[in-house]
Amino acid sequence: SNTFMREHIGYFATLVVVVAATLILSLVTNGDGITGQFSLVDLAPKSFTFSVPDNVSLEEASFALDNSREDINILRTANVRTQFVEDALREAETAFEQENYVQVLHLTSLIEHIRKDAIELQDGNELLKRNIHAAEEEGVSMEGFPVMMQSIDEAIYELRLDEGHRLMFRAEAKLDEATRESSRLTRVALLSKNFVVRYWWQIILVLIILAILARPAYRKMHKKMLKRKVAKLKKQMAFNKEMIKSLQRRAFVDANM
């Protein structure tokens, strides 16, 4: 039996992998899972919610499909990538053929939400760009904003709406902080300018007094420095005299010897 197991263990392992792969593929392609069918609504933005309406009928589902087609046309006009909503529409049309009208309304509601959220993000993005431009003209530092705004544009184009909202919130907070800092520096500069303008003659008077007082102080300091130099020179001269006398004495002694 051990020999049989060793010979067939590779076969059994391969069989397990094939069965597992077949099961996973079946779940993805057919939508039959432990918790229900896989749907694009599982990839919806966090802000999306759906409640089953009271009136669920063929007419309501058909009307919702028509509205979704209009929503997708609006998104195409807004120059965003529509692959996700187009896939959602195809899934809704399949559900309609299967008479799953609740799923149709769920998917079409998602498409409508994405259309509204994307347009709202675009409008907010344009307003943010105008505010950034106005702040730049007022001298506010724009460091880091170009990269941030490019990321927002990409998120909106890809319909990554949750990411777009996060990036826009950060950009607005950064702009607010930069504007406050610029206003603070402007106020400080203005206060300094106003102080000089308001007290110009007092400032000039103080400078004149300082100049008058500084002249005697400079003379006194200069005089002290000269005295120190003279004292140092006298000391050096006395030392030189002693050295000369010492050399003369040695020369006299040597001559007598």
Supply the key terms.
rod-shaped; mainly alpha; 257 residues
Topology:
Layout: H1 2-30, H2 58-77, H3 83-97, H4 101-137, H5 145-157, H6 161-198, H7 200-256
Helix pairs in contact: 2-3, 2-4, 3-4, 4-5, 4-6, 5-6
Structure description:
With 257 residues, the chain is mainly alpha-helical. It is built from seven helices and no strands. The protein has helices at 2-30, 58-77, 83-97, 101-137, 145-157, 161-198, 200-256. α4 packs antiparallel against α5 (145-157). It starts with a helix and ends with a helix. The model is unreliable at 4-8, 10-19 and 21-36 (pLDDT under 50).
State the gist of this model.
The chain is an all-alpha fold and 257 residues long. The protein has helices at 2-30, 58-77, 83-97, 101-137, 145-157, 161-198, 200-256.
Overall 3D shape: rod-shaped
The counted number of beta strands is 0
Work out the strand percent.
Answer: under 5%
Main beta sheet:
none
Structural class, judged by helices and strands? mainly alpha
> Element order, helices and strands?
HHHHHHH
